[in-house]
Design a protein that fits this description.
The protein is about 40% helix and about 10% strand. By secondary structure, the chain is an alpha/beta fold. The protein folds into 2 domains: about 140 residues, Aspartate Aminotransferase, domain 1 (Alpha-Beta Complex), CATH 3.90.1150; about 230 residues, Type I PLP-dependent aspartate aminotransferase-like (Major domain) (Aspartate Aminotransferase, domain 2). The longest helix has 24 residues. The two termini are about 35 Å apart. The chain binds pyridoxal-5'-phosphate. The site of pyridoxal-5'-phosphate has 13 residues, from helix 5.
Length: about 375
């Protein structure tokens, strides 16, 4: 019995994804009743009401396996996305996260290279390392833009994947059509380019890349999207990829059978029809990020102009301590260290009331930290790291 099981060293050594702190944890730790979560880029308006209604009415069909439902969801997605796409261009997944795992499983073998561009979403590195792949990091420029020439220079015969996150988490910056065209013109055909568009519905910039053009042209691209953000269904776990049919068919082989529940797919289909909820969400995010940006800029905290439903800023003090002091005031944000920005904090755009409460709490916290001196040492006492 003393023999240990053999662990896959790549999985054992890969970084672990830690989620944003939950409302329940903070409420219990601090005895608070009114906690707001602005940490995980969720939808402050809640789930799509149409999705909730449809899920409730699907409960009686739970005795059936959900295969046909996936066909229907892909049909609805094709109709919704338009742009010349057919159901054969779509593969569904348990959130965008599972799609990122499926992509790494399908396209990356031990020792092969994958390029991504910090600061960005941690899941790319996690998936690459789990596969025993070689992460190749090409930093964003100081303005948090993609450095297309540096990415192309980093491509080798062993490169399998390039991840482009637009809008990028945590900076909220985008890749433009011109930049993406330049990238695609230089990328050799043995490389698959992954456009992670989890936040695309929040973009109001005309220059954002139309990645579906590359799908139509049969280029080796996979576009990843999710129901977790604009549709408010992060807890339901539905994501999908759009790719040329040959790539989509191959990705399909990386799925588990019956990978999405009937409830998840039914809810997702109803959410696609909920135009009102989408429009309201988009409106409060675009207004809210403008307001938050202005406030943070006035406070001298260097907010990065965002095209998404979050903003990253530099508080000038330890992000961990700012986070903890905000927690004590019932406001949950996210230190951006795990996203390769150790000096920054990321806040999700909330309702106007939540945004105001966050700014008021942040002003208090920063004043307190100034009083304590640069290190904020006294803050250590009685605080906790969740
Ligand atoms: C850039 C990016 N891609 C993908 C995801 C995956 O989201 P989900 O698995 O909830 O669809 C997230 C979630 O935060 C994200 O920020």
């Amino acid at each position: 019995m003393s023999d240990k099981p053999h662990l896959n060293p790549h999985i054992a050594a890969a970084p672990v994804y830690t989620a944003g702190t939950s409302v329940e944890e903070v409420a219990a730790r601090y005895g608070l009743t009114d906690v707001i979560k602005m940490a995980s880029n969720e939808n402050a308006l809640g789930p799509s009401p149409k999705a909730v209604e449809a899920i409730a009415s699907a409960l009686t069909a739970l005795n059936f396996y959900p295969r046909v439902t996936d066909d229907k969801l892909r049909e609805r997605l094709a109709a919704h996305v338009g742009a010349g796409m057919t159901p054969d261009n779509f593969v569904t997944s348990n959130g965008g996260s599972e799609m990122l795992a499926m992509i790494a499983m399908g396209f990356l073998e031990e020792g092969e290279e994958a390029i991504f561009c910090p600061p960005t979403f941690l899941l790319y590195e996690i998936q690459v390392r789990r596969r025993g792949g070689q992460p190749v990091k090409v930093d964003l420029t100081p303005e948090y833009r993609y450095d297309v020439d540096a990415i192309l220079d980093a491509v080798t015969p062993s490169t399998r994947l390039i991840y482009i996150c637009s809008p990028n988490n945590p900076t909220g910056t985008i890749i433009t059509q011109e930049e993406a065209d330049r990238l695609m013109a230089g990328v050799p055909d043995h490389v698959v380019v992954v456009f992670d568009e989890a936040y695309i519905e929040f973009v109001d910039h005309d220059d954002h890349v139309d990645s579906l053009k590359y799908v139509r042209d049969g280029r080796h691209v996979i576009v990843v999207r999710t129901f977790s953000k604009i549709y408010g269904l992060a807890g339901l776990r539905v994501g999908y990829a759009i790719a040329p049919p040959e790539l989509a068919q191959y990705l399909w082989r990386c799925r588990q059978p019956f990978h999405l529940s009937t409830l998840a797919m039914t809810g997702a289909m109803a959410a696609l029809e909920d135009r009102e909820h989408v429009a309201r969400t988009r409106a409060i995010v675009i207004e809210g990020r403008k307001w938050l940006h202005h406030q943070l800029a006035e406070m001298g905290l260097d907010p990065v102009p965002s095209q998404s439903n979050f903003i990253v800023f530099r508080p000038g003090y330890s992000p961990q301590q700012v986070y903890e002091r905000l927690l004590q005031r019932g406001v949950v944000v996210r230190p951006a260290g795990p996203f390769y920005m150790p000096e920054h904090v990321r806040v999700t755009v909330g309702t106007p009331e939540q945004n105001e409460r966050f700014i008021a709490a942040l002003r208090e916290v920063l004043a307190e930290m100034e009083e304590l001196g640069e290190s904020g040492q006294k803050a250590e006492e009685g605080t906790l790291t969740l």
